């Protein structure tokens, strides 16, 4: 997310300069990160459920489709992505002067 925000810094600066609220821009960054995380976790859960038959022989004390494990891992991945989206790079791109300096 830091890389994506850094790449879009000039776009964000132009939006803020033209009158977009910093909170709206910030909300857009966080929602984009969470959207990517939810899609990735969904695809990963589907792949993991499809591969449980292969993994069943390697597991001894837990079932291959343990719902608590799947839910915990999905929750942790979304939480880490939310944190990565919430804390922007050191030079905050929602301030116009920082963003326009890149030009």
Topology readout:
Blueprint: H1 2-7, H2 9-17, H3 22-50, H4 52-55, H5 67-86, H6 96-100
Provide tags for this entry.
103 residues; mainly alpha; 6 helices
| Mean of residue pLDDT values | 79
Helix content: over 70%
- Name the overall outline: rod-shaped
Radius of gyration: 19 Å
* Number of separate strands: 0
Query: Could you give the distance between the termini?
Result: 21 Å
Low-confidence residue ranges:
none
* Structural classification: mainly alpha
Strand content: under 5%
Compute the number of helices: 6
Order of helices and strands: HHHHHH
Largest sheet: none
Q: Could you walk me through the main structural features you see in this protein, from its secondary elements to its overall organization?
A:
With about 100 residues, the protein is mainly α. It contains 6 helices and no strands. It has helices at about 1-5, 10-15, 20-50, 50-55, 65-85, 95-100. The two termini are about 20 Å apart. The mean pLDDT is about 80.
Structure described in brief:
The protein contains six helices and no strands.
């Amino acid at each position: 997310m830091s890389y994506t925000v850094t790449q879009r810094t000039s776009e964000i600066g132009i939006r803020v300069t033209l009158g977009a609220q910093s909170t709206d821009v910030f909300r857009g960054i966080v929602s984009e990160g969470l959207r990517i995380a939810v899609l990735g976790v969904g695809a990963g859960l589907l792949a993991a459920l499809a591969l449980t038959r292969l993994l069943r022989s390697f597991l001894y004390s837990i079932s291959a489709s343990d719902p608590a494990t799947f839910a915990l891992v999905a929750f942790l991945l979304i939480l880490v992505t939310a944190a990565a989206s919430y804390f922007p790079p050191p030079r905050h791109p929602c301030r116009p002067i920082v963003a326009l300096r890149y030009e």
